[in-house]
Amino acid sequence: MSTTALLRPLAHHKIHGAHYDRLAAVYVRQSTPQQMIRHQESTRLQYGLVERALALGWAKPQVLVIDEDLGKSADSVAGRSGFQRLVAEVSLAHVGIIFGLEMSRLARSNRDWHHLLEVCALFGTLIGDMDGIYDPTDYNDRLLLGLKGAMSEAELHVLKQRMMAGKRAKAARGALGMPVPMGYVRRPSGEVAKEPDEQAQAVIELIFDQFARVGTIHAVLRYLVQHQIRVPQRVRVGPNKGELVWRRPNRTTLSNLLHHPIYAGAYTYGRRPTDAKRKQPGRPSTGRLVAKPEDCQVLLPDRIPAYISWEQFERNRRQLEANTQAGLGVIRYGPSLLSGLVVCGRCGLRMASAYNNNGAGLRYSCDREMVDYGGAICQSLTGAPLDAWISALVLEALEPAALEVSLEVAADVEAQRQRLHQHWAKRLERAGYEVDRAARQYHAVEPENRLVARTLERQWEEALASEEQLKADYRRFLASQPITLSASEREAIRRLANDLPALWHAETTTAADRQAIIRQLVERVVVTVQGESEHVDLEVHWIGGHRTQTRRRRPVARLDQLSYYPALLARAAALHQQGLRRGAIAEVLNAEGWRPAKRRQTFTADMVRSLLVRQGLSASKVRPRSVTREADEWTLPALAYTLEMPHPTLYAWLRKGHLRARHDQRSGQWVIRANASELQRLRALRQAPRTWKRPASRASS
């Protein structure tokens, strides 16, 4: 027998020399950080397993303590670096025995537990707890270890089920305390009440009122930033816990506020369920969803003081859903007035707004078949005429309510100004209080304590400066927006409301304003283009169920798309047979109500010549193509070939004044002057990066 074996205390009969040649791993774990603070005795017992390893014969340098998983649950191996390290050490045949206080310390998942048992059996590693030493290669020990693992997992589920049942029962009574959002506080008795600070309440109410007016989160955010309005927050952790602070508004805060049913007086539980598929290992707060109020486990209306009614909360929800891509979408700032409202009458899908000519042109296209399946475009049409038709119908619908509109606008403007002035008054009151408190603190300090006195004096001066700056800002605000409307402002509102078309087309009325008005009246516009002709059938679905059906005429690209094209050719030919000249034929066609395809509302002599040429009744105007050129002169096609650029691009440069050219009257062609240096300049211009300017939003007619 070796000397080392003689010096060892009485060892377990399952421990052999091969085990002593490897490490003894002590695995230490607590489920949560709170348990580490409240149940410190359990942690000490686990660290005490080191003494047991020493008592069984392992030297102190051979004892490996793995405690990286303190404060982590054992329901999964994800995020447990200590357990992963333990399995890796066993797989490398570095560990002879694993010590744990009990099996639940190692794993509470059968999958992780049996994976560890398989690895231990493969590499001959023992497992020890407070009850004994186990060999995973032994049938009886393996059966016992499997039973302990199953009991550990079942214990976890029973504990969770018991605690969740009690939690749900308490929530069903509305007695389960949860963190409250801004605008609310929880009293020591557990009751939820509105924020006692009046300015904080006013800001919350202002946010809801403004959303009801503008309808989008971004517009509310811009309003708050424009008027320097901050949102109230109660500090939840740290030395300043419970204090009211004012922070910059942001999109996430406003979205949470508008979606939360607590502001409508409802108590909810289960509003943030967890999706296991989205949960990330080691991050307990991930995978959270936001459930709709009707999908919450508990929904108790009229349990909490409300800022808005439940009906207004539902209206806000519908508006937020309409602002999503799946709904109508938010109001955009492009020239389109019917974005999200136009529906294809052929396939029933929504028609998309598309801009061309660097944003200056608008088309409504039904292109889902092309985008999704590579097929053809269902139908499309120019957007400006359609916007003009719907605008005329909306103005016609609003005309009987002109007087009521003027009164409502005046009342709304005054109410908005009143809310802003109330907010300014509360800010001034708070600033005055801060000055008074700083003054009281300064006068209360002993004069001999100069270190404290100087600090308090500086705080007093800072409070005075802040108050003075706030008063100056308020004076500027008061000069720009008086509390009440002046007589001239009231008269301007009344005059504009009585002339709704002038107000609609005014430069101060943006496309977004027109979109908002149309969405208040129109549910959708069903558009059906008759073939490729100029006829368009419109069916306007108004809010409330009424429908208006009409047929309009749209501009088309070619004359042969016109439904009356054969009759137009016949009429032009008949007039030509009567001996009329082209100008006289154009006058007759215009007088009889014939209209060209696009760009013009009347025919010209050149258009009549084109009609006659198509029927072989007139010869086309042929100009000689030869051009007399001097040195360093080029025709457009020749110069485009030399510069290796498209002919239309070169012609666009000519129209923009980038080229020096003359017009040859005999051939009708442009002749461009370009010597060697000019050619070098044009090549450099061709290679220069292009910059695009966003066009200004134009009022639709």
Structural class: alpha+beta
Helical run tally: 26
Give the number of domains: 5
The 3D shape can be described as extended
Largest sheet, spatial ordering of strands = 2-1-3-4-5
* Biggest sheet layout: 5 strands, mixed
How helical, in percent, are the residues?
40-55%
- Beta-strand segment tally: 21
What average pLDDT do the residues reach? 82
Q: What is the terminal-to-terminal distance?
A: 106 Å
Radius of gyration: 40 Å
**Relative strand content:** 5-15%
Name its key features.
701 residues; alpha+beta; Rossmann fold; Hect, E3 ligase catalytic domain fold; 5 domains; 5-stranded mixed beta sheet; 4-stranded mixed beta sheet; 26 helices; 21 strands; 47% helix; disordered N terminus; disordered C terminus
Please tell me about this protein's structure.
The protein is an alpha+beta fold and 701 residues long. It has five domains: 3-165, Rossmann fold (3-Layer(aba) Sandwich), CATH 3.40.50.1390; 193-323, Alpha-Beta Complex (Hect, E3 ligase catalytic domain fold), CATH 3.90.1750; 337-533, no CATH class; 559-614; 633-687, Multidrug-efflux Transporter Regulator, Chain: A, Domain 2, CATH 1.10.1660. It has 26 helices and 21 strands. The chain has a five-stranded mixed β-sheet, with helices on both faces. The termini are far apart.
